[in-house]
Description:
Layout: H1 2-11, H2 15-21, E1 46-47, E2 50-55, H3 61-70, E3 74-75, E4 83-85, E5 100-110, E6 114-123, E7 126-130, E8 133-138, E9 145-146, E10 150-154, E11 158-168, E12 174-180, E13 186-188, E14 194-196
Antiparallel strand pairs: 1-14, 2-3, 2-5, 4-12, 5-11, 5-14, 6-9, 6-10, 6-12, 7-8, 7-11, 12-13
Helix pairs in contact: 1-2
Bound molecules: calcium ion (CA).
Amino acid sequence: MSFILSICKVATTLSVVAMLVGCASVEVTKPSAEIARTSPQPSTLASGLAVRYYGGQYANIRGLVEMMEYQKGVQGIPLPMLNYKVGEGTVLTTTTTDLMGADITGYINMSKKGRYTFLVQSNDGVRLNIGGKQIFEDPDIHGDRFSPELYVDVTDPGWYSIRVLYFEKSNSSTLELYWQEPEGDMVFVPTEAFGHIKK
Ligand SMILES: [Ca+2]
Protein backbone atom coordinates (compact mmCIF):
# COMPACT_ATOMS: atom_id res chain seq x y z
CA MET A 1 0.00 0.00 0.00
CA SER A 2 2.58 2.57 1.08
CA PHE A 3 4.78 1.39 -1.78
CA ILE A 4 2.08 2.12 -4.35
CA LEU A 5 1.32 5.45 -2.70
CA SER A 6 4.93 6.55 -2.84
CA ILE A 7 5.30 5.32 -6.40
CA CYS A 8 2.21 7.28 -7.40
CA LYS A 9 3.56 10.43 -5.74
CA VAL A 10 6.65 10.22 -7.91
CA ALA A 11 4.95 8.83 -10.96
CA THR A 12 2.47 11.62 -11.41
CA THR A 13 5.27 13.67 -12.93
CA LEU A 14 6.20 10.81 -15.25
CA SER A 15 3.07 9.84 -17.11
CA VAL A 16 4.56 6.70 -18.70
CA VAL A 17 5.53 5.33 -15.30
CA ALA A 18 2.14 6.41 -13.99
CA MET A 19 0.40 4.29 -16.61
CA LEU A 20 2.61 1.31 -15.84
CA VAL A 21 1.86 1.32 -12.13
CA GLY A 22 -1.79 2.20 -12.53
CA CYS A 23 -1.93 5.84 -11.44
CA ALA A 24 -4.28 8.28 -13.13
CA SER A 25 -2.28 9.86 -15.95
CA VAL A 26 -3.46 13.38 -15.32
CA GLU A 27 -1.66 16.57 -14.45
CA VAL A 28 -0.82 17.14 -10.81
CA THR A 29 -3.49 19.39 -9.40
CA LYS A 30 -2.26 22.87 -8.56
CA PRO A 31 -2.85 24.23 -5.07
CA SER A 32 -6.57 24.76 -4.83
CA ALA A 33 -8.38 28.03 -4.99
CA GLU A 34 -10.45 28.97 -1.99
CA ILE A 35 -13.12 26.45 -1.23
CA ALA A 36 -16.28 27.51 0.55
CA ARG A 37 -16.81 26.47 4.16
CA THR A 38 -20.42 25.46 4.85
CA SER A 39 -22.37 28.38 6.27
CA PRO A 40 -23.96 28.19 8.72
CA GLN A 41 -21.95 25.28 10.11
CA PRO A 42 -24.09 22.13 10.48
CA SER A 43 -24.90 21.49 14.15
CA THR A 44 -26.23 17.94 14.47
CA LEU A 45 -24.69 15.43 12.13
CA ALA A 46 -24.90 11.66 11.99
CA SER A 47 -21.52 10.03 11.41
CA GLY A 48 -20.39 8.89 7.99
CA LEU A 49 -21.69 9.92 4.57
CA ALA A 50 -25.16 9.58 3.08
CA VAL A 51 -25.54 7.65 -0.18
CA ARG A 52 -28.19 7.21 -2.86
CA TYR A 53 -27.82 4.38 -5.32
CA TYR A 54 -28.70 4.48 -9.00
CA GLY A 55 -28.52 1.05 -10.57
CA GLY A 56 -27.51 1.11 -14.24
CA GLN A 57 -24.79 0.54 -16.78
CA TYR A 58 -22.56 3.59 -17.06
CA ALA A 59 -19.56 4.27 -19.27
CA ASN A 60 -18.60 7.43 -17.40
CA ILE A 61 -19.67 9.84 -14.65
CA ARG A 62 -21.60 11.92 -17.18
CA GLY A 63 -23.85 8.92 -17.79
CA LEU A 64 -24.55 8.64 -14.06
CA VAL A 65 -25.36 12.36 -13.84
CA GLU A 66 -27.82 11.99 -16.73
CA MET A 67 -29.47 9.03 -15.00
CA MET A 68 -29.80 11.02 -11.78
CA GLU A 69 -31.81 13.66 -13.64
CA TYR A 70 -34.75 11.34 -14.14
CA GLN A 71 -34.36 8.55 -11.57
CA LYS A 72 -34.97 9.08 -7.87
CA GLY A 73 -32.49 6.46 -6.78
CA VAL A 74 -32.63 4.45 -3.55
CA GLN A 75 -31.36 5.66 -0.19
CA GLY A 76 -28.57 3.37 1.00
CA ILE A 77 -26.95 2.50 4.31
CA PRO A 78 -24.57 5.37 5.19
CA LEU A 79 -20.87 4.87 4.48
CA PRO A 80 -18.68 5.10 7.62
CA MET A 81 -15.54 5.72 5.53
CA LEU A 82 -14.48 5.50 1.91
CA ASN A 83 -12.25 2.46 2.28
CA TYR A 84 -13.78 -0.01 -0.17
CA LYS A 85 -11.44 -2.27 -2.08
CA VAL A 86 -13.57 -5.35 -2.42
CA GLY A 87 -12.38 -7.19 -5.51
CA GLU A 88 -15.48 -8.75 -7.07
CA GLY A 89 -17.49 -8.36 -3.86
CA THR A 90 -20.50 -6.12 -3.23
CA VAL A 91 -20.38 -2.43 -4.14
CA LEU A 92 -20.19 -0.09 -1.11
CA THR A 93 -23.22 -0.83 1.12
CA THR A 94 -25.31 -2.50 -1.58
CA THR A 95 -25.90 -6.22 -2.02
CA THR A 96 -24.96 -6.11 -5.70
CA THR A 97 -21.55 -6.55 -7.28
CA ASP A 98 -21.87 -4.64 -10.58
CA LEU A 99 -23.79 -2.02 -12.59
CA MET A 100 -24.21 0.46 -9.76
CA GLY A 101 -23.91 4.23 -9.41
CA ALA A 102 -23.67 6.16 -6.15
CA ASP A 103 -24.25 9.78 -5.13
CA ILE A 104 -22.38 10.16 -1.84
CA THR A 105 -23.01 13.37 0.13
CA GLY A 106 -22.31 14.96 3.49
CA TYR A 107 -19.66 16.99 5.25
CA ILE A 108 -15.96 16.64 5.96
CA ASN A 109 -14.35 18.26 9.00
CA MET A 110 -11.08 19.94 8.15
CA SER A 111 -10.33 21.21 11.63
CA LYS A 112 -6.80 22.52 11.08
CA LYS A 113 -5.39 25.43 9.16
CA GLY A 114 -2.98 24.55 6.41
CA ARG A 115 -2.61 22.19 3.50
CA TYR A 116 -4.61 18.98 3.26
CA THR A 117 -3.43 16.44 0.72
CA PHE A 118 -5.95 13.94 -0.62
CA LEU A 119 -5.60 10.75 -2.64
CA VAL A 120 -8.45 8.89 -4.33
CA GLN A 121 -8.27 5.32 -5.54
CA SER A 122 -11.13 4.31 -7.82
CA ASN A 123 -12.49 1.51 -10.02
CA ASP A 124 -14.48 2.48 -11.98
CA GLY A 125 -15.28 6.19 -12.41
CA VAL A 126 -15.22 8.86 -9.74
CA ARG A 127 -15.69 12.61 -9.26
CA LEU A 128 -14.81 14.38 -5.99
CA ASN A 129 -16.17 17.75 -4.91
CA ILE A 130 -15.19 19.47 -1.66
CA GLY A 131 -16.55 22.83 -0.54
CA GLY A 132 -18.47 23.18 -3.78
CA LYS A 133 -15.34 22.80 -5.90
CA GLN A 134 -14.42 19.88 -8.14
CA ILE A 135 -11.16 18.54 -6.73
CA PHE A 136 -10.70 15.50 -8.96
CA GLU A 137 -12.31 13.42 -11.67
CA ASP A 138 -11.28 10.10 -13.21
CA PRO A 139 -14.59 9.61 -14.97
CA ASP A 140 -14.26 6.56 -17.20
CA ILE A 141 -14.11 2.77 -16.77
CA HIS A 142 -10.75 1.66 -15.36
CA GLY A 143 -9.04 -0.77 -13.02
CA ASP A 144 -7.78 0.27 -9.58
CA ARG A 145 -6.06 3.59 -10.07
CA PHE A 146 -4.84 6.40 -7.82
CA SER A 147 -5.31 10.09 -8.34
CA PRO A 148 -2.29 12.34 -8.14
CA GLU A 149 -1.90 14.24 -4.86
CA LEU A 150 -4.77 16.69 -4.53
CA TYR A 151 -4.19 19.82 -2.48
CA VAL A 152 -6.75 21.75 -0.47
CA ASP A 153 -5.55 24.77 1.46
CA VAL A 154 -7.71 25.46 4.51
CA THR A 155 -7.70 28.96 5.95
CA ASP A 156 -11.04 28.62 7.70
CA PRO A 157 -11.22 25.30 9.62
CA GLY A 158 -14.56 23.55 10.01
CA TRP A 159 -17.11 21.47 8.14
CA TYR A 160 -17.08 21.56 4.36
CA SER A 161 -19.55 19.92 2.02
CA ILE A 162 -18.31 16.81 0.24
CA ARG A 163 -19.86 14.99 -2.70
CA VAL A 164 -18.51 11.90 -4.43
CA LEU A 165 -20.09 10.53 -7.61
CA TYR A 166 -18.99 6.98 -8.30
CA PHE A 167 -19.94 4.01 -10.41
CA GLU A 168 -18.92 0.39 -10.81
CA LYS A 169 -19.54 -1.34 -14.11
CA SER A 170 -18.11 -4.86 -13.79
CA ASN A 171 -15.44 -7.11 -12.28
CA SER A 172 -13.64 -5.58 -9.30
CA SER A 173 -14.59 -2.34 -7.56
CA THR A 174 -12.69 0.14 -5.39
CA LEU A 175 -13.47 3.49 -3.80
CA GLU A 176 -10.95 4.89 -1.33
CA LEU A 177 -10.32 8.38 0.02
CA TYR A 178 -7.11 9.17 1.92
CA TRP A 179 -5.95 12.40 3.44
CA GLN A 180 -2.88 13.85 5.03
CA GLU A 181 -3.77 16.58 7.48
CA PRO A 182 -1.27 19.40 8.02
CA GLU A 183 1.75 17.66 9.61
CA GLY A 184 -0.10 14.31 9.64
CA ASP A 185 0.34 10.94 7.92
CA MET A 186 -1.47 9.72 4.81
CA VAL A 187 -4.40 7.65 6.16
CA PHE A 188 -8.00 6.89 5.25
CA VAL A 189 -10.19 9.86 6.09
CA PRO A 190 -11.57 8.63 9.45
CA THR A 191 -15.26 8.18 10.24
CA GLU A 192 -15.24 11.02 12.78
CA ALA A 193 -14.24 13.46 10.03
CA PHE A 194 -17.40 12.63 8.05
CA GLY A 195 -20.96 13.67 8.86
CA HIS A 196 -24.32 13.82 7.18
CA ILE A 197 -27.79 15.11 7.96
CA LYS A 198 -29.99 12.17 8.85
CA LYS A 199 -33.18 11.87 6.78
CA1 LIG B 1 -14.80 -2.43 -12.11
